[in-house]
Protein: Pyruvate carboxyltransferase domain-containing protein
Amino acid sequence: MLHFRNTRAMGLANALAAWQAGITRFDSSLDGLGSCSFASGVSGTVGTEGTEDLVHMFESMSVYTSVNLDALLEVAATLPNLIGHEVPG
Structure:
């Protein structure tokens, strides 16, 4: 399993390269939530976009993810109200 940051907007590109190298499990965050608590200026987990863009990328390539993207997007839409502020995704 791999976990990427979106440093220099390379999170999704790095996930794609990892998949092409045989990695099939990825750790990501919903709607781009998350950051590095011990290093200032470090970007969010797998893209500012988050899990939904990772799933969309793979499914657009006909890679089965077992994730219901529509349901994931519905949950992501509830996050601003749930956490009390806008989210980056």
